[in-house]
Amino acid sequence: MNIVALSRELELPAFEKGSVWLAGAGPGDPGLITVLGLHALKRADVVLYDALVNEALLKLVRPGAELVYAGKRAGVKSCRQSDISRTLVSLARKGKRVLRLKGGDPFVFGRGAEEALTLAEAGIPFRIVPGVTAGIGGLACANIPVTHRDTNHAVTFVTGHGADGKLPDLDWSAIARGAPTLVFYMAKGFAGEIAAKLIDAGRHADEPAAVVSNASLPSQEVRVTTLSKLGEAAAETATPAMLVIGENVNLRGALAQPGTKQYSSLSPLASLKNTA
Known about the structure:
This protein has helices at 3-9, 35-43, 55-58, 81-93, 112-122, 134-141, 172-178, 191-200, 230-235, 251-255, 269-273; strands at 20-24, 46-49, 66-69, 98-102, 126-129, 155-159, 181-185, 208-213, 221-226, 241-245. By secondary structure, the chain is of the alpha/beta class.
C-alpha cells in the first residue's frame, strides 16, 4: 500500500493551503517518522527542515515542493529563531502548505512551542504532529530503556543547552533527587560540569551512565561509563549526543546479548518513494 492509499485508509486530515504543520521527524532513522508526518511531507508546498532531519526524508517530497534549510546547531552559525518563525507566517499568508520538519519531537526541546505561539498570534492555522523524541526512541535504539518497573518509576528530561548557549541555571539538588533516571539533551559539551553538579547534589560517583551519539543511525555509538567519568566519555563521542544516567544503563548489556533482536537502521521508506 502506498502512502496516498494509506492516508485515505487512515482518514488522515487534509493539509490545507495557508496552514503550517509542525512535525517531528524522529531521532534520525527515516523509518521513525510517523505516518502523519510522512503524509504532511508528501503534500507540503514548502518544507523548512532542521539540521538533524535525515536527508532521505527530503527525497520523498512531492515534485515541485520547495526545500528550505532552517537548522540550528550548537556552536555553528545558523538561522535565527525569530527569522524562522516570521518565514512560517509569511509563507502561510501566501497560501502555501508549509511543513516545519524538526528532528525528534517539535515540543521536546525543539522550539516548536515558540513557533506555534508565533503562528497563533498571527492567526495562522497550524497543526502539531508529534514525533519520536531522541530521549525515548533514541535510547531504545541503544538498548537503554528509560523506564523499568524494577529500577525506576520516574524519569527526568533536561536540556543541557540554554538559549544563551550555556548550561542552564537549574536546581541541581531537585534534579538529583527527582528521578532515578536522568536524560540530558544537547549536553555533550557540559557533561563533566553536569556530572560534578549531580555528584555534589548527592548522586553516586560510580552510578552507571552512558553517552549515546547519532542515535538510531548506522553510525550510532554508545559509551557506557560512570557518572564521575561522564565528561571524559562525552569528549570522545561525536555529536549529536545524549547523556543518560541511572541503573537502566546496566540493562543494555542483557538486551544486547547475541540471539536477541537488535535494532535495524534499515528503513521501509525507500519502497514508498516510487509508489506514492
